[in-house]
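dude i think i finally got it to work??
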Amino acid sequence: MGGLFDKAVFRLVGDRGVIVEYGDAISPEINIKVRTMATAINEEKPAGIVEVVPTYRSLLIVYDPMATDLKSLEDALQFLESRLDQLEIPPPRTVEIPVSYGGDLGPDIEFVAQAHNLTVEDVIRIHTGALYQIYMIGFTPGFPFLGGLPEELHTPRLETPRPLVPAGSVGIANNQTGVYPIDSPGGWRLIGRTPLSLFNPSKENPFLYRAGDMIKFVRISEEEYRRILSEGKP
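look at this
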């Protein structure tokens, strides 16, 4: 079992980036460290840093090599890390996402149920009964990688990905669950779909959630799904 590193590990990524690793496992403890450091960097704005991208267990730092160098960057980040106990990250929000499960909207739910000797109702009950932390956002704009999927639903992804997964599809892949914000290829087992628009680039804040938030899936009927979709609710 991995865990939180005693000391951050720095790895170069090209001539404008560095990955800062804080652990070697997917865990709430490591992810809190990642998000706290991201908050500290965004607040303190060390010289030369252009962008900060948090992941499960590390940060990708994009920097301007004309404004700083790797040694100065490491020193600045280590200084911030030494002061983390003085910083509080924003408390997580809980974002509810309505989902219509099964049928054409969740074509793989029967497979998930059969793989675990469950009924479809069991799958829905277990999936909606958990609270999921957003560890990171990526793959496509707004795709949330969620921790906390109950072990009873851990299911391998498709052997061959679908060329097109409709926006709003909720899926399972191994020990994770997530939602496709836009139409895209994908290999996750689809168990339902939300009528919400999870990514709207025309808005000042195009996403409904951010890394660190909690997701709660709420079951709705297909009729309610169609109604919300027709009303165009965000």
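The first strand starts at residue 4 and ends at 13.
im so relieved honestly
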